[in-house]
Amino acid sequence: MPELDGIRTGRHRVPATHVHLVLVTTFRHPVFADRHLTRMEQITRVTCAATPRPNWSLKGVSSRRPQQESPDLVRHYHRANKLWSDSYFAGSVGRRHRAS
After folding, report:
1. Distance separating alpha carbons of residues 67 and 52, to the nearest angstrom
2. 25 touches 40 (CB < 8 A)
3. Is residue 44, in this structure, part of any structural domain at all?
4. Total domain count for the chain?
5. Which of 23, 56, 61, 88 has the smallest set of CB atoms within 10 Å of its CB?
6. What sign results for the dihedral spanned by CA atoms 14, 20, 25, 30?
7. Best mean pLDDT range from 38-42, 65-69, 93-97
8. Is residue 27 part of a domain?
9. How far apart are CA 90 and CA 19, in angstroms?
10. What would the pLDDT profile of 9-59 be if each residue is shown by its tens digit?
11. 4 in a domain, yes or no?
């Protein structure tokens, strides 16, 4: 599988999981402008590339960095003191391949 170059494989497995992660803002109202979403995508890509378990740190990093860089976000979550709600959804994507 050429798209798996550089990924460690085992005798009976090839770990390559693609996940859609959905985070929900605390009060479920419009929070982000286009510039926030663009920056959030950059933060997410860097975090996922640099962390072996990105889902563990992604909520924290994707909340903390925008707060530091865009203080205008603070007004949306100042009562709860957090950007994301405790809920999230993570679902794997792609086809399951069976051995022939």
Report:
1. 24
2. no
3. yes
4. 1
5. 56
6. positive
7. 38-42
8. yes
9. 6
10. 666 666 667 778 888 888 777 888 999 999 999 998 888 888 777 766 888
11. no
Q: Domain range spanning residue 77?
A: 18-93
Tokens representing 66 are 């925008």
Give the pLDDT score at 100: 45
| 32 vs 15: CA distance, rounded Å | 34
**Cα distance between residue 69 and residue 73, in whole Å:** 9
Distance of CA 94 to the CA centre of its chain: 17
Distance (Å, whole) CA 5 – CA 11: 16
What CATH number does the domain containing 88 carry?
A: 3.30.70.1290
From the centroid of its chain, how far is CA 43? 9
- CB of 47 closer than 8 Å to CB of 100: no
Give CA–CA dist 45/54, Å, rounded. Answer: 10
Evaluate if pTM is beyond 0.85: no
Q: 21: which strand partners?
A: 90
